[in-house]
Amino acid sequence: MNLELWQWLLALLGAVLVGISKTGVAGIGMLFVSIFAMLLGAKEASGFVLPMLIFADVVAVAAYRKHAQWSHLVKLFPWTGAGVIIGWLAMNRIDDRQARVMVGAIVLALLALHLWRRRQATRRAHLRISPGKDTPAPVAGPVVEDAEHGAWFAPTMGVLAGFTTLVSNAAGPLMAIYLIAMRLPKMQFVGTAAVFFLLLNCFKVPFMMNLGLITTRSFSFNLLLAPAVLAGAFFGRWLLPRINQALFEALALGLSALAGLKLIGLF
Q: What does DSSP assign to residue 135?
């Protein structure tokens, strides 16, 4: 590719962030999505960097596969496949801006729903406790919502994740919201996400090739950036055990919110 030096440096940063997002801090992936969208355009970037994402997914699965929770994957993936097909059908009918705004609105709406449900769960937990002489007062601190959601939750999140990953590689925030709602500890969170995205990104390959977004040119570009992806993955692997669960969830949700705001164009 004919990139200037500053563009190559930005691409290297994006590749490092790909690795970190797969093995360390969930939600940071939207930063690399923004970088490559700026360099290549949102729609082109969705397929152009797919080999890089698959490479990072392989590294993440190798590191965290024993923590993957297959029960969640089984519930999600059939619906995610349907979402990919919907995104593929829509890809030539929407432009870059429409894709970004649509995905950003979805992320923010689901984040708001998640926070509302968490608040309701906290309120119900406090109402169940009536402090008295023989009853301890509620313990301060966050009370996570029940893991059980309506039958609509996994199918809806699956379809939306498939659609958003196809049009803009932006399924990361949706999966962060879903896996936190399922109350997964950080290691299970990362392990489940690693397997999910490896399967999903491999599933996307023929669709992206059909759209002309994966070429020998794009594959060569990905090969050049592979060492930076690997460096980021090792750094994320080092970082994850050093982040406590509360900070991990706060980072994941906070970065998801910033991603949504960025996608709809507020900054």
A: S
Q: Which two tokens stand for residue 89?
A: 């059908």
Give just the sign of the alpha carbon dihedral 64, 103, 261, 17.
positive
CA distance 239 to 74: 29
pLDDT tens column, 60-92: 999 999 999 999 999 999 999 999 999 999 888
pLDDT(139) > 50: no
Helix axes 29-40, 172-181, angle to 10 degrees: 170
Q: How far is CA 256 from the centre of its chain?
A: 8
Contact assessment for residue 165 and residue 21, using Cβ atoms and an 8 Å cutoff: no
Q: Which amino acid is at 98?
A: Q
Q: With b meaning 16 or more CB within 10 Å and e meaning fewer, what string describes 106-132?
A: bbbebbeebeeebeeebeeeeeeeeee
| Listed residue (93, 100, 87) closest to 204, CA to CA | 87
Instruction: Compute, in degrees rounded to 10, the torsion defined by CA atoms 133, 139, 144, 149.
Output: 0
Residue-wise pLDDT for 86-114, tens only, equals 999 988 888 878 877 887 888 888 788 77
Written as one letter, the residue type at 131 is: P
**What is the chain's Cα-based Rg?**
19
Instruction: Work out the pLDDT band at 173, boundaries 50, 70, 90.
Output: confident
